[in-house]
Amino acid sequence: MKKQIAELRREVSRLNRALAEQAEDAVETAHGWYDSAADRASGWYDSAADRASRAAQQLRSQAQSVRGQAHSVSETVRQNPGTISTAMTLGGLVGVLIGLAIARSAVPQPDWFQRHWRS
Fold first, then answer.
1. Residue-wise DSSP of 26-63
2. Which of 61, 80, 60 is nearest to 72 (CA)?
3. pLDDT tens digits, residue range 21-63?
4. CB 65 within 8 A of CB 71
């Protein structure tokens, strides 16, 4: 009986060592997965940050370009107020003429529409 108990204790010890080795392997595998995921996330973050930086730089340069164009337009308006007002007046007149032409060529309203509003 003592022999069997001693043998069972040795077997339990071997099983405990085997379980400890497997747990150690599992921990190493989990660390590997974690490190791999962290490396990938870091790469994605670096890539996104680089793209965002380039986009911001491009927007800044475009804003400076637009600001320069707006400045040149405002300078032109200040230097030639008569020309600008003439152009705006002519544009308005052309718009009115187009509106009148469209209104004259419109299809007349149906008779039922006239009867409804007369009464």
1. HHHHHHHHHHHHHHHHHHHHHHHHHHHHHHHHHHHHHH
2. 80
3. 888 888 888 888 888 888 888 888 888 888 888 888 888 888 8
4. no
- Rounded to an integer, what distance in angstroms lies between the CA atom of residue 50 and that of residue 42? 12
The dihedral over CA atoms of 68, 70, 73, 79, expressed in degrees to the nearest 10, equals -80
Distance in angstroms (rounded) separating the CA atoms of residues 63 and 13: 74
pLDDT tens, residue by residue, 81-104: 787 788 888 999 999 999 888 877
CA 67, CA 15: separation in Å to the nearest integer? 76
Q: CA–CA separation, 119 vs 117, rounded Å?
A: 6
- The number of angstroms, rounded, from the C-alpha of 18 to the middle of its chain's C-alpha atoms is 52
Structure tokens at 27: 């921990």
- 3 state SS of 110: coil
How big is the CA angle at 85 (ends 79 and 86), to the nearest 5 degrees?
110
